[in-house]
Amino acid sequence: MEEGDLVLCKVEKVTSTITSVTLQNGQEGTIVSSEIAPGRIKLMRQYVVPNKQVVCKILKIDGDHIHLSLRRVSSKEKKEVLQSSKQSQAINTAFKQILGDEEKSIKEKILKNFADLIDFINSARNDESLISKYIPKDKQDAIKKVVEKRQKKTELKQNIKIKCTEDDGVRRIKKIFSLNNDQISITYISAGNFKLKLKVEDFKQGKKEMVEIIKELEKRAKENNCEFHATEEK
Asked: Is the dihedral of CA 79, 82, 126, 220 positive or negative?
């Protein structure tokens, strides 16, 4: 986990100043009242209730303790994390049903090299040999069906402003945006304004990929003596 990551948490205890939660990996975290919602909160339980699941953003990792924010999570981010959690539960259930008594040992072997089962499934879509490497022969066809079931892609969007005052500004902008990725689309909105869309299957990994894309565009803009500014579309 890293600062800025989105995580699904279970609310444990609610007070007027601090809400205690447990993350899916068992770690404990807290949300101070100012990070529950913007403005003055009259009734804390309108936002957080014991045993309820909430999507939070990691603000700081302090040893084994996680400092979180609820109010900094957009409705789109919340929706995507909940969908990802639902998909993860479905994949875990499928593995348990297919692998039976072997599920625990096989899963342990997979998780030594992959972040989670979703990571393994996404990797197996690009490299089918992973299935024969980790899954017993008599179970491989059933796992292949899980791998072949495509999850619905989601779109991450960035609004980009770019300004090149050089005589060949249009050529420079085209050069900046020449990204070799068929999951990216860039749309012209108005003078100097563009919308960048990235199609992803895994929301969390997609967010990290988008950060790298924006860094690369910013670097190219600087090299071409152009002003560059990007903001996430919520």
From this structure: positive
Q: Hey, which bits of the chain come out as E strands?
A: 6-14, 18-23, 28-32, 53-62, 65-69, 154-163, 184-190, 193-200, 227-232
> What's the pTM?
0.60
Tell me the pLDDT tens digit for each residue of 132-166.
Answer: 999 999 999 999 988 887 666 778 899 999 999 88
Cβ atoms 218, 162 nearer than 8 A: no
**What is the domain-level CATH number for residue 34?**
2.40.50.140
**Range(s) of the domain holding residue 196:** 154-232
**Does a structural domain hold residue 164?**
yes
Please report, rounded to a whole number, the percentage of residues in the chain having pLDDT higher than 70: 98
Judged by DSSP in three states, 92 sits in: helix
In 3D, which of 137, 135, 136 has the Cα closest to residue 117?
135
- Number of domains into which the chain is organized: 3
What pLDDT score was predicted for residue 103?
Answer: 93
Domain annotation covers residue 120: yes
Query: Last residue of some domain: 148, 175, 199?
Result: 148
Query: Which of 18, 15, 47, 45 is closest to 30 using CA atoms?
Result: 18
Write down how long the chain is: 234
Examine residue 98 and state whether it is found in any structural domain, yes or no: yes
Nearest to 125 by CA among 142, 146, 145, 147: 147
Write down the pLDDT at residue 66.
Answer: 93
